[in-house]
Amino acid sequence: MTVFSFSLLTPSISSEAMLAVVDDRARLQRMLDFEIALVRALAALGLVPALATDKVSEAAKIEKYDLAKLGEEAVRAGDIATPVVKALTDEVAKTDSAAARFVHWGASNQDLTDTTQVLELRAGIDVLLIDLGKAIDSFTALAGRHRRTASLGRTTLQHALPLPLGLKIANYANALARSRDRLRRLRKEALVLQFGGRVGTLAALGERGLQVTERLAALLDLPAPEAPWLGHSDRLAEVAAAIAIMTGSCGKIARDIALMMQTEVAEAFEPAPRVTDIASAMPHKRVPVLAATVLSAATIVPNLLATIVAGQVQEHERGVGGGQAQWHTFPALLLASSSAISAIATIAQGLDVDPERMRSNLEVTHGLIMGEAVVNSLSTKLSREASEIIVEEASRKAIAEKRHLNTVLSEDPRVTAHMTPGELARLFELMNYQGSAQTFIERIVGALQARGMKRI
């Protein structure tokens, strides 16, 4: 019934909480819950005997069913709903054959599987939101602590300009917060009841279809859409896309951390495992284990999303294959994405930053990283072109003679004619050239904190 059930592999591509969400027993219980809610809605409107509610509720207990057998029968039936409805009907019939007639009354198999999928996604999003909250809060706190920590801003994997580490981390938190906003919105707007009967008309319920829909939606705590949506899975695809975007943001963060963990860089590290956990003949290695988990998920998830989007192409009111593909793919999507955000939350809560190493790396180019600052300052005295030529020539000389750019520039009369030694030296103070970075940090952190206060 689920895609991943391998005890050796699954823990590495899922969080423990998400495993519980997509567990076979949990999925089956949601299917049974739909049937309980349906008969209760029907009974409340007098469409089926009230006694049927008790009989179905008593029969719809997970321990009464053989999951392996249901899985085998699903292969023969072509879907899981058919054997589940039959098994529930048979179970009810053991105590009341009359009540058994009202199992699944007025519903289609797709109503059952689609609504079960919606309920699973709701539970899955709740799990993701918990880890998102942990990661966002931790990165927000880190951004505040490191707002004055000088680090390297890198473009195309090369040193570019100084960057407050707090801004880099604040952007991590902000990206994850946008994913949290998307998932919260979609949890309310996209996860809606599917109840339409055979072809989306609820013809079997006559004129009472809308009333049953409203009661069923209330019992399952789901919004009732304007009309049944069988054959149109765009809402589910949008949820999948939001989950994939979240995983991609996690992957971006993990890639940065992995690069900063390289021996030659050594600027920041994910939390280290205990020595007793991992024995190694190379104790100097600090392997990015958590980052690797995230990047693995970020590689898998886009392909799962592609399958779900492809599954939108369904024939008429109930398609052949598309919905089934989505049914099997969503658990994999939830598992993989959960491993990504869970690992990112752990990284955020224990990120080990080395400010001294960052400052040391900033000095690797012997002041060349501040060349733009010098050009901009000289341009207030000379033309932009002349300033660029002076700094370019000085930079080449500094590289050839392995000297600091400040030293070379301080010997150039074209520079000293317009700048005192003190003015030139100040241009090489790393955090003097950060533009609006501190304002950006304040704005991001302030917005994130405001969102947090609104939730309380």
Count of individual domains? 2
For the record, the CATH class of the largest domain is Mainly Alpha
H/E series: HHHHHHHEEHHHEHHEHHHHHHH
Rg result: 30 Å
Using the coordinates shown, work out and report the CATH topology of the largest domain. Fumarase C, Chain A, domain 2
- Structural class of the secondary elements? mainly alpha
* Oligomer category: single chain
Give the count of helical stretches. 19
Shape, per Cα inertia axes: elongated
Q: Any idea what the CATH superfamily of the largest domain is called?
A: Fumarase/aspartase (Central domain)
Main pleated sheet: 2 strands, antiparallel
Q: Which strand order spans the largest sheet, edge to edge or round the barrel? A: 1-2
| Mean pLDDT across all amino acids | 93
| Uncertain spans | none
Terminal CA distance reads 38 Å
CATH architecture of the largest domain: Up-down Bundle
Please report which band the strand proportion falls in: under 5%, 5-15%, 15-25%, 25-35%, 35-45% or over 45%: under 5%
* Number of strand elements: 4
Helical content stands at 55-70%
